[in-house]
Structures are given as C-alpha cells and as structure tokens.
C-alpha cells in the first residue's frame, strides 16, 4: 500500500472519499480508476456485496480525520445551541403546563377555554423547537407529580411538533401541529373521572365512553373560529390505528393524515412512560420496544423508526446500567449516536451512590481501551434506586 493510501473499515466510509481498492474477506479488489463515494447508499451497496473495508487516497477527497474533526465541531455547536435554548425552553414549558392545567380544569367544570392564548403559547413552543428541538424534548422526560393530563398535553405537543419539524413542517403548519397535540385530549375532560382513574379493568360500557373523547375534542374545536383542519384531524384521529382497528371511526392508515401517525406514537409513548392510577410508568426502552412490535399494525413503521431516531434508543431521562456496573441518567443524545449517549453517572461500579455525579460521553469512550465496559447493559427503573430524574435532566453540567 502506498504512503498516501489508508485502509479503513467500510463503516468509516463517507461521501467525498476517493477509493483506490475494496477490501473483502477474500482480499483486495483493485479498481481500474479511483471511485468517488457520493452517497451513503453506495456504501450500503458495498456492504451487501461483502465489502468490509476501503483503501482510500488520503491526498484526495475527505479523510477519516477530517470527518472526525468536523463531527466534533458539529457536536460542540449542537451542545452550545442546546444549552443556549434550554433556559428559554424551561420558561415556555412551565407556562405551557400552567395554561394546560387551567384550560383542562375549566373544561372539566363545564367552562370554556382561551383558544387565542393557547395558540400564542404554541407559537412560542414551536419557535423553541425550531431553534433547538433537543432542549424542549428533553423536558418531556421530567414526569411531575401533578395532574397527568396537563403534562401529557404539553409532552404530546412537544414530541409531535419536534418530529414534524424533522419532517419539514414550519411556520403556521408547525404551530397547527403543536395545537393538535396540546388540545388532543380536551374531550377527556367530559369523561367521568371515576372512569379515567379506575384502577381495575374497564367494563365494555366504560370503555365505550372513553372511546368518545376524540369526538368530544373535535366538537369543542369546531365551536372555535380559526382552528385549522390539521389541528382538528389530530384531535379526532389520534386514536385511529394503521390497520383500521382504532377509534372512533375505525379508519385505516390510507385515510389518515400523516400527523395522525405521529400523534398515535407520541400519545402512546408518553402515556406508557408516565405513572397512572392504574399502572406504574414503563422505562422508555420498554415503551419503544412495545410500540415497535405494533409496526405495520397499530403504527406506521416509518413513523416509529423516525420517532426512535428522534429520541434515541435510550432517550434523555433513561436510567441505565453500564457493563462495568456504573449507573446513571441519559442527559444528552447526540445526532447519529443512538447507542452512545452522554450520561450523568450517579452510582459507581460497586453500586454505591457517588457524592458528586460525573459526566461521561459513551461515544468518546468507544475510542478507549475500556470501550466494551462503557456500553449500556440495561435500562432500569429509577424509583428502585431512589433517583428523581427531574433533579438532573435539563440542567447544565452539575
């Protein structure tokens, strides 16, 4: 191999590289002329054909070192943007929960709700999402001890609008998505609380009553002027399912708006990961795994995959144990680093609570001799270890 050449793994390949030869299990495959990698799809094609490595020309195109430097610069910029937005996101989040609490209480008592104030709030929320979605999304993992529905309304609005932003929604359309998430459960306030909070299994009659809440939500939105069709579709369709076995209309995926797919996943995930009167919260990983099992039946596979990439395999707020025995909370999920988030370690390898928490970036540890011990082994319930996620998530380095 010439001095200007370098052998790399196929996994290190990237657009912009000049390739002189391919590496397979059987040896080298020399090319008659250099091949320039233009897309990730080319690399995926090589993998499917048994290519395990590349011989690249370091004097032409981009190098692995350049890619690593650019990635580090991008990551630093994302970290800066996250913390810059975080304080403003906290203020908006507090305001959103407060307004949702007043809104739902008013509707529960037979009163009205201030649509204009809610619309203005959702404009602030979507603005934060556009500036840096990670900041607001991280706050959805702080599960308060208060009333479930106000927090749930805000969380669904945040999860939906952040995903919609990734899908290209912006401006008024993004606000409409946030409004749909924020107001999707208005109709639950017309359901008797004894049914909503019943600890045991619902009777057929009780379940039939619950299934009417999307219709009640739509009815209330129809009574307001200026509410968009998109916001209304989210409210009426958030319990419809991809296979047509949802409610209240039983429409299949082909008849649903794409934001109904997103609403179904966001609504289900937040409900599963929150304590309720009749069940304890699941870990984010259990919730994601359960939702993934419903792909192509209850949920759109494309939407579930996007949602998982959006949050990470171990979302912010997950309490995890590493192979080496250390335990901590996921506080940041870097773009493209689904399995190697940043943690705040709270317990040492002996299972003892640390006097001072310690940050560790699992992505950076993958280049260390101990990389195998710095892998996540399992997700755990923070309650078992007397850990309050809200004390740590959404804070700058402790």
Description of the structure:
- This protein is an alpha+beta fold.
- It folds into three domains: 5-62, no CATH class; 70-311, Orthogonal Bundle (Hypothetical protein af1432); 319-391, no CATH class.
- Helices cover 45% and strands 16% of the residues.
- The chain has 13 helices and nine strands.
- It has helices spanning 40-48, 64-108, 115-139, 148-166, 171-183, 193-196, 204-210, 213-222, 229-237, 258-272, 284-293, 301-311, 362-365, and strands at 5-9, 17-24, 27-36, 51-61, 319-322, 327-332, 342-347, 353-361, 376-380.
- The strands form two sheets. The protein has a five-stranded antiparallel beta sheet with strand order 8-7-6-5-9. Strands 1-4-2-3 form a four-stranded antiparallel beta sheet.
- Helix 2 packs antiparallel against helix 4 (148-166) and helix 3 crosses helix 5 (171-183).
- The longest helix has 45 residues, at 64-108.
- It is globular, with a radius of gyration of 24 Å.
- The N and C termini lie far apart (48 Å).
- The mean pLDDT is 91.
Descriptors for this entry?
alpha+beta, 3 domains, 13 helices, Hypothetical protein af1432, four-stranded antiparallel β-sheet, five-stranded antiparallel β-sheet
């Amino acid at each position: 191999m010439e001095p200007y050449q370098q052998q790399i793994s196929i996994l290190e390949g990237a657009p912009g590289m000049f390739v002189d030869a391919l590496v397979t299990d059987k040896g080298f495959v020399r090319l008659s002329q250099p091949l320039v990698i233009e897309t990730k799809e080319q690399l995926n094609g090589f993998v499917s054909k048994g290519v395990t490595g590349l011989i690249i020309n370091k004097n032409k195109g981009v190098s692995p070192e350049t890619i690593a430097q650019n990635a580090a610069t991008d990551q630093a910029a994302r970290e800066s943007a996250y913390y810059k937005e975080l304080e403003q996101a906290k203020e908006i989040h507090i305001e959103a929960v407060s307004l949702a609490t007043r809104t739902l209480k008013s509707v529960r008592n037979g009163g009205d709700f201030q649509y204009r104030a809610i619309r203005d709030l959702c404009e602030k929320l979507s603005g934060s999402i556009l500036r840096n979605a990670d900041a607001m999304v991280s706050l959805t993992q702080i599960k308060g001890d208060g009333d479930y529905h106000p927090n749930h309304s805000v969380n669904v609005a945040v999860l939906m609008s952040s995903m919609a932003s990734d899908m290209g929604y912006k401006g008024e359309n993004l606000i409409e998505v946030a409004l749909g998430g924020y107001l999707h459960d208005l109709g639950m306030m017309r359901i008797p609380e004894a049914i909503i909070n019943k600890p045991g299994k619902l009777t057929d009659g009780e379940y039939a009553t619950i299934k009417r809440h999307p219709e009640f939500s739509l009815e209330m939105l129809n009574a307001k002027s200026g509410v968009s069709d998109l916001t209304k579709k989210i409210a009426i369709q958030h319990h419809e399912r991809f296979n047509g076995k949802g409610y209240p209309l039983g429409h299949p995926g082909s008849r649903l708006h794409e934001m109904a797919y997103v609403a179904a996943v966001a609504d289900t995930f937040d409900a599963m990961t929150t304590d309720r009167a009749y069940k304890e919260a699941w870990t984010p990983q259990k919730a994601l795994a359960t939702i993934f099992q419903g792909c192509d039946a209850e949920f759109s596979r494309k939407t579930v995959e996007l949602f998982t990439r959006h949050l990470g395999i171990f979302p912010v707020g997950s309490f995890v144990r590493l192979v080496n025995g250390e335990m901590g909370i996921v506080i940041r999920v870097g773009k493209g680093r689904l399995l190697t988030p940043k943690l705040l370690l709270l317990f040492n390898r002996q299972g003892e609570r640390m006097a001072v928490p310690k940050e560790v970036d699992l992505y950076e540890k993958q280049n260390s001799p101990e990389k195998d011990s710095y892998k996540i082994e399992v997700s755990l319930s923070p309650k078992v270890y007397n850990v309050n996620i809200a004390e740590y998530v959404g804070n700058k380095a402790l």
